[in-house]
Design the sequence.
């Protein structure tokens, strides 16, 4: 887990470096309105791609645990199920492109934009299979290097051509296709083609049926991250959606750190839970919770305090979204514990986890419908962000307590050292705000991050906490890998 977590952390840093160039290109060369149209269209196709994975991004690890001598067959079954589901979703959106581009004039490319869905879904499933063997390098290459940099480079190049009106959409298609071709070959090299494999509709159907709760939880979690844009797009202009999207992308950078640990947490937990080691499973959850919280808090402070200057980088009009950025960064602090806890709940309490996810989604939707249409400081984008923050706090408390009850051991990763490091860093940030914006974005940003990092490393990271950054130490990973792959998870 340590080695994989370290690789995932590097991948997170690469994503962080690649995200800003695209947002800068989109804001400066395409504008807020075009960016809003792009945001809504990609939201729809990614939703359908999420549906098409059928929960197998996380459920595949469990299926491979049950079939230790037929892992290649498990992967092929998952890919086949995902392909069928994605083709159904693609056909629907090709027939009804208005679902992807509502209330806007359709361009020649728009009808066929949904053809990218199978590429997204199958790449995610293939990477989940590799993650079962702690092969996170393929995910880092596909999702942290190839996908974001192809997107940025293609968007930049197309901005100066006759295809500029569809430039961001074409760049998105190219990036997802490139990630697909970076994900599948490593998976087939790792697993090969299963010997004696035959298509069995009943076996594939059982796989889908088992993972329905996971798919529901995935959709609920994903919906919580996209419902705000969906509702905002119904009550606000494309320009407002574009500003919100930039704030959301910046604020989601801390969240992407947590998602970097998903491929590692799943396999480790399945092995420990299958062996009945609930205490060790809870220990892994606590460890990753702290790693994620510690890194997220530092990034949130560094991005949030000079938020107006950061938003202004993408164009003067985007600086108006600083309040939205502050609210969305708060969301990430609340959501971190819920997201990590869900990584354990999907193996011990799928039904209850789904219920909590749906409750959070309902709360967010209700609050959004009340706040977003309002005039004043709590309406529009700020209202959408506040609704998301309240729902995230509710789920953080509920899911953490539920997992603790099921495992019988503490799972929270929050420690007093987080506040010990956060308060001085906040003070440094307030001093940085007294300087010109270029100073805030350079010296101020790194002063906040450096102050926080030094204190949390000196007083917060002890013993096992430092394994994430120490090469050659694989105690946790080796310990988990040595556990029997007992086929008892289906009884949980």
Sequence:
């Amino acid at each position: 887990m340590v080695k994989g977590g370290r690789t995932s952390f590097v991948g997170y840093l690469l994503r962080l470096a690649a995200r800003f160039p695209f947002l800068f290109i989109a804001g400066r060369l395409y504008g807020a309105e075009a960016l809003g149209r792009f945001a809504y269209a990609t939201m729809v196709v990614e939703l359908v791609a999420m549906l098409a994975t059928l929960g197998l991004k996380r459920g595949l690890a469990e299926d491979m645990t049950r079939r230790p001598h037929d892992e290649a067959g498990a992967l092929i079954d998952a890919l086949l199920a995902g392909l069928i589901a994605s083709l159904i979703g693609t056909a629907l959106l090709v027939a009804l492109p208005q679902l992807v581009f509502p209330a806007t004039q359709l361009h020649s490319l728009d009808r066929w934009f949904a053809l990218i869905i199978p590429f997204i879904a199958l790449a995610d499933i293939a990477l989940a299979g590799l993650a079962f063997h702690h092969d996170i390098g393929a995910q880092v290459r596909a999702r942290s290097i190839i996908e974001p940099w192809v997107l940025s480079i293609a968007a930049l190049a197309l901005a100066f051509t006759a295809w500029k009106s569809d430039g961001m959409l074409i760049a998105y298609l190219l990036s997802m296709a490139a990630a697909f071709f970076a994900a599948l070959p490593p998976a087939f090299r790792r697993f090969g083609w299963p010997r004696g494999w035959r298509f069995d509709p009943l076996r594939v159907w059982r796989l889908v049926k088992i993972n329905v709760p996971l798919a529901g939880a995935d959709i609920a979690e994903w919906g919580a991250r996209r419902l705000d844009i969906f509702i905002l797009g119904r009550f606000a202009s494309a320009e407002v959606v574009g500003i919100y999207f930039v704030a959301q992308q910046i604020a989601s950078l801390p969240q992407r750190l947590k998602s970097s640990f998903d491929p590692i947490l799943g396999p480790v937990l399945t092995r420990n839970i299958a062996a009945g080691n609930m205490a060790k499973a809870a220990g892994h959850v606590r460890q990753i919770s702290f790693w994620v919280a510690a890194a997220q808090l530092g990034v949130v402070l560094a991005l949030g305090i000079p938020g107006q200057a950061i938003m202004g980088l993408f164009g003067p009009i985007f600086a108006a979204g600083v309040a939205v950025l502050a609210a969305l960064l708060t969301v990430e602090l609340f959501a971190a514990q819920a997201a990590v806890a869900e990584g354990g709940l999907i193996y011990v309490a799928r039904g209850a986890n789904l219920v909590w996810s749906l409750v959070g989604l309902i709360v967010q939707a209700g609050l959004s419908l009340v706040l977003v249409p309002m005039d004043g400081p709590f309406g529009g984008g700020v209202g959408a962000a506040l609704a998301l923050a309240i729902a995230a706090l509710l789920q953080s408390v509920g899911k953490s307590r539920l997992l603790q009850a099921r495992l019988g051991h503490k799972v929270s990763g929050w420690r007093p050292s987080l506040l010990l490091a956060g308060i001085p860093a906040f003070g440094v940030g307030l001093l940085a705000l007294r300087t010109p914006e270029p100073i805030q974005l350079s010296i101020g940003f790194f002063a906040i991050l450096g102050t926080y990092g030094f204190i949390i490393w000196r007083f917060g990271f002890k013993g096992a906490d430092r394994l994430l950054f120490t090469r050659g130490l694989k105690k946790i990973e080796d310990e988990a890998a040595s556990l029997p792959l007992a086929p008892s998870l289906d009884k949980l």
